[in-house]
What we know:
By secondary structure, the chain is α/β, with parallel strands linked by helices. The chain is 46% helix and 17% strand.
Amino acid sequence: MRVGIVGTGLIGASLGLALRRLHDVDAVAGFDADPAQLATALERGALTAAAGSAAAAAADADVAVLAVPVSAVPAVAAEVGPALRAGAVLTDVSSVKARVVTALQAAAAPGVSVVGGHPMAGSHETGAAHASADLFTGATYLLTPTADTEPDAYRRLHSLVGRIGARPLAVDPAHHDALVAVVSHLPQLAATTLMNLAADRARSEHAGLLLLAAGGFRDATRVAASDPDLWTDICSENRDAIVAVLDDYRERIGALRSVLAVGDETGLRRALGDARAARRSLPGKETITGALVELHLPIPDRPGVLAEVTTTVGSVGVNIEDLGIEHAPIGGRGTLRLAIIGFKPAGRARDALEALGYEVLEQPL
């Protein structure tokens, strides 16, 4: 397998390091508009070769990954698209998906498959110098198939993501943007606000205030150290979803303020208790264990089936560990096989799919 990576910052270089651990990845070519980042990625072993352009990095690639700022994706995709050969997969790592997937589809030549991607992994550090092959281990890696996604292309990218240690989860592109506004973009803005509030108080009231910052404050504001250019880009691209969740957040903060203002200890205890229970229920990176269960689904051979099945399973919080497709020689039908860890997750996936009218056979492995 040959992989081309355009953008060799933290995510792109980490992806290169992770891919180079795989025995069947023969070459990882890379390009970056910043020659220093490209040189660092090459020196650290994230790439087998440095290309002179984005198109050159993608030429002859089986999988091309755009690891560039979200606002740069349309232009880079337009450059890369014509260089990709038929059968290649074009993907990205942007934290905004609806507009990005549309741009990738517009740039892709006939025969090139588009599958949007978003690894839920990163750091407040930036650049290839901080890249790590283990960055994706145990992390959720969102994939956004559409009605136009070729099943075999999705299967190949899904397998590749799983083999670098991530847990692939399918979600609709538009739904993705609403979800990450809550779990990624709002935390960044909340941390930014809290950090700026504390810094302003330190300047105006007590110069030693920030020296008192304990673990809770440091944990809550860690992402405030992230790259401002990156987050300006993200917030601009996902503005509508972020504004909607900020409105909800403002209402909840206002309600909590009212509880405090009137001395409603019962209401305060309830809010704190609900948050504590929700926080404790968050799954850890490595907590999903159990028997491997395979779900078999007879499916019609029509566009959109794969996206419907995989995003439905993802919507109930179930990771597909592996999948396979067996096409019937006649009749326009086939069988989709989904491998899921644990009987309970497999049961949730089966129930969700049966609710859509699919016939599902569950088989422990």
